[in-house]
Design goal:
- This protein is α/β, with parallel strands linked by helices and 379 residues long.
- It has a single domain, classed as Alpha-Beta Barrel (TIM Barrel).
- The protein has 15 helices and eight strands.
- Strands 1-8-7-6-5-4-3-2 form an eight-stranded parallel sheet.
- About 2% of the residues have low confidence.
């Protein structure tokens, strides 16, 4: 009987809880960057403020971004994310294209068609994604060689600044600012550049609109097909992670955890999970429900509590607080991948990694079934 290919990450997740990195944006803020730093030479003539467009730092401050990757890896991260959360032509247009609403117009599919066809925005999106992937790749390989432990690069695909599920116009509930094909095209541009930069897997994360996520997943499949990556042994694993509200629903599309899982399970992802959201305590019941329903590995990387502008990181919880919460999740058998979202620095990840050393990962249903089959055959 032919052996079924299994990605090294699948094997890892059966043996221990894998550690994901923390918040790029939070950690960037600790370096004290100013507007001039993010502009450098390439963007010095931009008409809008760029400091909140953290993805650009991969182009203008690569040494800082590399240092952040190094720190997360040395803290114990098995998987580091590319600095590409908003690196699509659609998201970048917020910083480089005049908003038609300022002149009495509105954003609509005609507006976004021009965006995704704009050569300069396409090139910008490519440059950010490829450069960030290469930066991650360099540091993941360097630390792997130094420590003798494999490290993996996850290409981050964020949720975009538009929604396919909801209308922004209360008087026109059927209106959508963008089409499914436009969102899919923007994600496909991003995926091609991430693959060119050398990522090991793709992470569709912070999902607040599952229809946006569907467009990302269709884009991934189409790029895999066009690049011959659909065959066994060539596919990049896919991680999927949603953000939830207090009721446990994805924020805009309002799906429950069970409905969310049913909407994405056909992709056969490496993992499904929750991130960002409300902090670990309020996330717990929804993580439990997802862990009960899903048949794949479960990831969890919450915010460090609720926002707090008086905190040095902008969030309430320190490293030991996050470590205690995620150790509790692991003790209940809920997780296979653990890390941190907003407010989580390399120090948070180091504490989480230490707290989860030797803790058994959530038992995967497939592994349990395989073991039972093996026992039956040997009997």
């Amino acid at each position: 009987m032919a052996r079924v290919y299994r990605h090294p990450l699948e094997v890892l997740l059966e043996d221990r809880i894998a550690i994901l990195d923390g918040a790029m944006g939070t950690t960037i803020r600790t370096y004290g960057m100013q507007e001039a730093d993010i502009r450098a030479d390439r963007f010095q003539d931009a008409s809008k403020d760029l400091l909140n467009n953290g993805d650009l730092f991969s182009l203008t401050q690569p040494k800082m971004i590399g240092d952040i990757h190094r720190r997360f890896l040395e803290a114990g991260a098995d998987i580091i994310e590319t600095n590409t959360f908003g690196a699509t032509s659609i998201a970048q247009s917020e910083f480089f294209v005049e908003d038609p609403r300022e002149r009495g117009g509105r954003k609509d599919p005609a507006f976004y068609q021009k965006i995704i066809e704009d050569a300069s925005l396409q090139q910008l999106a490519w440059d950010i994604n490829e450069a960030s992937a290469r930066q991650c790749r360099e540091w993941a390989d360097r630390i792997a060689e130094d420590t003798g432990r494999a490290r993996y690069v996850a290409g981050s695909l964020g949720p975009l600044t538009v929604s396919l599920s909801n209308s922004p116009d209360a008087d026109d509930p059927g209106f959508r600012v963008v089409t499914f094909d436009q969102v899919k095209t923007a994600y496909a541009q991003q995926v091609r550049a991430l693959i060119a930069g050398g990522v090991d897997l793709l992470l569709v994360e912070t999902i607040f609109d599952s229809l946006n996520a569907k467009a990302a997943l269709v884009a991934i499949r189409e790029v895999f097909d066009e690049q011959g990556l659909s065959a066994a042994g060539k596919q990049l694993p896919i991680m999927i992670s949603a953000a939830v509200g207090r009721g446990g629903e994805t924020l805009i599309s309002a799906q429950t955890m069970e409905a969310f899982w049913n909407a994405v399970k056909h992709v056969k992802p490496l993992s499904v999970g929750l991130n960002c959201s409300l902090g670990p305590d309020l996330m717990h019941p929804f993580l439990s429900e997802l862990a009960e329903k899903a048949e794949v590995a479960i990831s969890c990387y919450p915010n460090a509590g609720l926002p707090n502008p008086l905190s040095p990181t902008g969030f309430d919880l320190g490293p030991e607080d996050m470590a205690r919460s995620l150790r509790g999740f692991a003790g209940e058998g809920l997780i296979n991948i653990a890390g941190g979202c907003c407010g989580n620095t390399p120090e948070h990840i180091a504490a989480i990694a230490k707290a989860l050393e030797g803790v058994h990962p959530r038992e995967l249903r497939e592994r349990t079934q395989r073991k039972a089959a093996e026992r039956e055959v040997s009997a």
